[in-house]
């Protein structure tokens, strides 16, 4: 019989935190042992979120070290904001707890620190800018296409409560495309922006555009252009259950690895 995986979730009142708690509660081999919330220290989870369809109650902690010391989890599922995620992940590694980080917006330096600490301490750690399987495929397909189409623009579209722009997915997509694409500065060399920012953000010569609107969840198009043709690769998350298959896979996998992994594509068969 598989051992039960004990999990601490950060950001439990958030959109992803609530969805993840629901998934954990409904997964036999997972056990929610604590949550980390910047408010509500000492309360019970049922006092801060609706437990309608959720069975497991647990304690709420504000201090990450106290939480990890008292609950002794196997895995910390990080779903809050970048700076808190950085602090939580480093603390988890020090306690021998494996982080699964879905939070986006961490700097390259923050990610490099987490990678170094995980590898030096031989603690499994998975950072996944997007847990949706379709989004991972979109990124892989875009990487394949970039070999043949060096002209590319990324348009990511999210709900207007999102704090980081561009999205973690857009950045990861650009990084994957960069690995295959021959170096190119796109557009007209004498292009003039008559309205500042109108051409989007520049990532190694390709453009990323971020749209924020109520009604959206998480969507991305990768557009490639060539002579007389375009190719559009698009993914849509219509709700946050779309991320849960990937979260589950990452939590299961992190228990069997002893180093840092960046991107869900590296753990999918
Ligand atoms: N990898 C993936 O597939 C996905 C990743 N995400 C990422 O997950 C993260 C969370 O997204 P989402 O749930 O939509 O966001 P929400 O804003 O709904 O939730 C964020 C949670 O983090 C808490 N929080 C905010 N600031 C801090 C802080 N300084 N310390 C501790 N906790 C804090 C908030 O509490 P409070 O109410 O007190 O502010 C809230 O509970 C984002 O980075 C998002 O980009 C989202 C979807 C999918
Ligand atoms: O904030 C979100 O909602 C999402 N964030 C992640 C990102 O920044 O890419 C993943 C997904 O796009 C939803």
Automatic annotation (TrEMBL):
Question: Which GO biological-process labels does this protein carry?
Answer: diaminopimelate biosynthetic process; lysine biosynthetic process via diaminopimelate
User: Listed GO cellular component terms?
Assistant: cytosol
Q: What is this protein called?
A: 4-hydroxy-tetrahydrodipicolinate reductase
Q: Which organism is it from?
A: Fervidibacillus halotolerans
Q: Which GO terms describe its molecular function?
A: 4-hydroxy-tetrahydrodipicolinate reductase; NAD binding; NADP binding; oxidoreductase activity, acting on CH or CH2 groups, NAD or NADP as acceptor
Keywords associated with the record: Amino-acid biosynthesis, Cytoplasm, Diaminopimelate biosynthesis, Lysine biosynthesis, NAD, NADP, Oxidoreductase
For binding NAD(+), which residues are annotated in this chain's numbering? 11-16, 37, 102-104, 128-131
What's its job?
Answer: Catalyzes the conversion of 4-hydroxy-tetrahydrodipicolinate (HTPA) to tetrahydrodipicolinate.
| One matching Pfam family | DapB_C
Binding residues for (S)-2,3,4,5-tetrahydrodipicolinate: 159, 168-169
